TrEMBL record:
Subunit record text: Heterodimer of a large and a small subunit.
GO MF term set: 3 iron, 4 sulfur cluster binding; 4 iron, 4 sulfur cluster binding; cytochrome-c3 hydrogenase activity; electron transfer activity; ferredoxin hydrogenase activity; metal ion binding
Cytochrome-c3 hydrogenase C-terminal domain: residues covered: 182-263
Subcellular location, principal: periplasm
Residue ranges of every copy of the NADH:ubiquinone oxidoreductase-like 20kDa subunit domain listed in the record: 17-164
Protein name, entry field: cytochrome-c3 hydrogenase
Amino-acid positions noted as binding [4Fe-4S] cluster 2 in the UniProt annotation, renumbered to this chain: 187, 190, 215, 221
Binding locations of [4Fe-4S] cluster 1: 17, 20, 114, 150
Amino acid sequence: LMTKKRPSVVYLHCAECTGCTEGLLRAYEPYFDEIIMNTISLDYCETVMAAAGDAAHAALEKALINPEGYICVIEGGIPTRHGGEYGKVGGETMFQLCARVASKAMATIAMGSCACFGGVQAAAPNPSGAKGVNEALKAVGVNAINIAGCPPNPMNFVGTVVHLLTKGMPELDTWNRPLLFFGDTVHDHCPRQKHFNKGEFAPGFGSPEAKKGWCLYQLGCKGPYTYNNCPTALFNQVNWPVKAGAPCIGCSEPNFWDKYSPFFHP
Ligand code: SF4
Ligand code: SF4
Ligand code: F3S
């Protein structure tokens, strides 16, 4: 992988909080700087590129005519109401920009639940008509790999990029999430599951039972319905929501903001 010319990546930001990029900056083994120095050529990314304004725009246009092509990554939902006027970059709507870039990409990755399924801005009443990449861009032939999560574990993104570059398209589930990372539920590997099986449910946040590792299901945990690898992948190498005492809110599932709220049952 490292001896080949580094493939170009164009990383677009739409309607979102940038938390997915923040997560990605904390990738390890490999670290983010190793990824962009040794593995890929990050030719456009508004959050981490040094260029701004016209120079940034020029870098984007240059990447788009690279004869060797590029991988497109989109973070954020795509506003579609009123011609997409609720989100613009460089005078172009996010919808137009994403359609233009993703429709010509070698592969497209939707990074985070906003890009996969619309995210918080698509929650009712969804004033901007925000949609996930595949829903918004299906008509122009885009079929993105969904790296779901709010934010996703950076390992799931990096692993997908490496898979694409070395073995091609990973096997996907019905929501276009790579089975490698989203094949099992959070509940399947949760260390609190032994208490779930014995009917031992913590009665409150911070209760002695919660601290002893009892199950958080009655406090609102959506782990049994949520496909993600948080218990085994961990965030920042150390922790994940349920281990920290917070129920899983189902952040890698479609429309989780509407479907799973209220998140907590204190
Ligand atoms: Fe932020 Fe979550 Fe959307 Fe990522 S998926 S941009 S963390 S709101
Ligand atoms: Fe399942 Fe959640 Fe209980 Fe863990 S805390 S065993 S994921 S219901
Ligand atoms: Fe999200 Fe649940 Fe993991 S809330 S981060 S899928 S534990």
